[in-house]
């Protein structure tokens, strides 16, 4: 027969799975996003070298932009784990918030990387539009921030 302590421990583990899913999915999106934008930065630098133009160091800002979503996922993990300590019976909520919040942040990072790839190509070729390109990446970043904030608002007080 399964005791109450075993059941509580299992429910706590399922809730923690949601917390770890948040950082996991966010990190996967960051890896994809930085990979896509980073590949574009390397290609843009190659074009600059081939044309004997200076290679803009600022492309690293575009390539690294998707990394922040991993930090947001880590914050969500910390908040969910804090809630599990006090109310483990809400495990379905923690699992859902971690999964959906993490996926939303990961997709944001992925598409931020795609936009960053275009920004790398554009800026390396023209040397213009850095602030405009960064603004677009900031708009995409806002989706991840909203996902984090809205997920935290769903958690019990």
Kindly summarize this structure in a few lines.
By secondary structure, the protein is mainly α.
Mean pLDDT: 95
Tell me the name of the CATH homologous superfamily: lithium bound rotor ring of v- atpase
The CATH class assignment is Mainly Alpha
CATH architecture identity: Up-down Bundle
The major pleated sheet works out as: none
Order of helices and strands: HHHHH
Total count of helical runs of at least 4 residues: 5
From the 3D structure, determine the CATH topology: Four Helix Bundle (Hemerythrin (Met), subunit A)
* Terminal CA distance: 34 Å
Shape: elongated
Q: How many discrete structural domains?
A: 1
Which spans have pLDDT < 50 for at least 5 consecutive residues? none
Structural class: mainly alpha
Q: Could you tell me the number of beta strands?
A: 0
Gyration radius, to the nearest Å? 20 Å
Helix fraction bin: over 70%
User: How much beta, percentage-wise?
Assistant: under 5%
What report would you give on this structure?
By secondary structure, the protein is an all-alpha fold. The chain has a single domain (26-154), classed as Four Helix Bundle (Hemerythrin (Met), subunit A), CATH 1.20.120. The protein is built from 5 helices and no strands. The protein has helices at 4-50, 59-64, 68-86, 91-126, 130-154. α1 (4-50) runs antiparallel to α3 and α3 runs parallel beside α5 (130-154). The longest helix has 47 residues, at 4-50. The radius of gyration is 20 Å and the shape is elongated.
């Amino acid at each position: 027969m399964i005791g109450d302590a075993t059941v509580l421990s299992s429910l706590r583990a399922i809730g923690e799975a949601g917390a770890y899913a948040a950082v996991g999915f966010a990190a996967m999106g960051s890896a994809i996003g930085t990979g896509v934008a980073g590949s574009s930065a390397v290609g843009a630098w190659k074009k600059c070298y081939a044309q004997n133009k200076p290679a803009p160091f600022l492309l690293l800002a575009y390539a690294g932009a998707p990394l922040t979503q991993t930090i947001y996922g880590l914050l969500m993990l910390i908040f969910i784990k804090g809630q599990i300590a006090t109310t483990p019976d809400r495990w379905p909520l923690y699992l859902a918030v971690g999964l959906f919040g993490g996926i939303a942040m990961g997709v944001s990072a992925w598409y931020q990387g795609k936009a960053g790839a275009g920004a790398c190509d554009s800026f390396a070729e023209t040397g213009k539009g850095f602030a405009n390109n960064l603004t677009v990446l900031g708009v995409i970043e806002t989706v991840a921030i909203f996902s984090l904030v809205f997920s935290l608002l769903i958690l019990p007080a």
